Amino acid sequence: MARIVSTLAFAALAAAAPLDARTSKHTSLIKQPDGPTEYQISLGPRPYYIVQNMTEGPLKQKLESCANGPFSVTGWSIGHRGGATLQIPEASAQNQEAGARMGSGVLECDVAFTNDLQLVCRHSLCDLHTTTDILLRPELAAKCTQPFRPANATSPASALCCTSDITLSEYNSLCSKMDGSNSSARTPEAYQRGTPAWRTDLYDTCATPLSLDGFIDLVDSFPGYRNFTPELKTPPSQVPMPFKGVYTQAQYARDMVNAFIRKGIAPERVWAQSFLPADVFLWISEFPAFGNHAVYLDEEGDTPETLVTAAARLPSLKAQGVNIIAPPINYLLTYGDATNSTIVPSPYATAAKAAGLDIIAWLFERSGPLTTVDARQDYYYSTFSQAVSHDGQLYEVLDIMANEIGIVGMFSDWSATTTYFANCFGLQGPYGENYN
Is the peptide bond before 70 cis (omega within 30 degrees of 0)? Predict the structure, then answer.
């Protein structure tokens, strides 16, 4: 059985103060409720399932000791597309509500723009055909960049529907659905199917899409101290910039930050993200109170050769004012022995820490059962998949990133998993004030 290397000093961590006993300049985190009317963090069975599937050892014992909580909101647990994407349509109000209930202290809105230049939450400008019911709305489907094309003997079914094809009002009329499509579909109705088997359609019942303003209001209404992490989406080639010849990427980046300023949200609560260095540098220059903790999403190391290059440029990013780097999990971990049976921090992770960069990682609970990640060549486990064989290793992988590498936050499609771990080890996540 594969073994994962850890050098954690469990005794010291076990003695760490619980989240609700610590002090900071922040509003108090949620505490265990005193009565039935108070908001209670609810983690459900999944964290316990993972712990039960772990191999015996100090890490399992530590996590078992936390089984009865108490559990509080933690900024270390970052809700990806809301934090309940494993089961609930992404970027929807219902997803955000579930992620908040599972203790995420930071909730994400991927920011796209509509035809009338309003900002909305959608993982891609051009994913409406797989994440909403737009193809079932003939008047809106007709506006898609590429209307639905049924499968035939030589080509799969296809469509391409972008937020930039429709107005904010039209966007708000849609139902969000679980991301998926049926490539053999002959009708738009059949094309709606395709949710991965390890997710579920149980809650796929017309979830509510969110504008950026609606997201801000919703997250700000949740009990406890919650932060925001808006990600400025890079427009695909089908949406050339400047949009309509006038709307530039720079203005798009400004508009996202200005939405929070208009709402009176403190900059320390906003963790702006982008895959484009130019966006991050604009925020550093024009909105320093936001930019000093803006997050550069690094996706430049997807081959062994480019990963070396990506690691080498990290000191340069730090010198230009970037303080937080956010790579995928597979950039941070590698094999620790010649038999590919152990996992250790990667040279990229070591380089990031040496450069003085804080690290936020993505993406947990995105890959389905760990039993098959090697056979499926899953992206997030690609640099260490042969050392992974069962779901209990989820927390072993998380332990290396949290307690050896020292990441300051983890994006997850199921916030309960990361909330449980963070509470057990007293991980609060990053505070914007620390970067002033």
Answer: yes
Does an H or E element contain 106, and which? strand 104-113
Give pLDDT tens digits for 386-420. 999 999 999 999 999 999 999 999 999 999 999 99
Burial class (CB in 10 A: 0-12, 13-18, 19+), 296: buried
Q: Residue with structure tokens 């530590």? A: 62
Q: Which helix (H) or strand (E) holds 146?
A: strand 146-149
User: What pTM does this model have?
Assistant: 0.92
Tell me the domains of the chain and their CATH numbers. 10-123+210-435 (3.20.20.190)
Burial class, 134, CB count within 10 angstroms (exposed 0-12 / middle 13-18 / buried 19+) = buried
Query: Rounded CA gap, 312 and 2, in Å?
Result: 31
Digit-coded pLDDT (tens) for 324-365: 999 999 999 999 999 999 999 999 999 999 999 999 999 999
The string of pLDDT tens digits covering residues 168-183 is 999 999 999 999 999 9
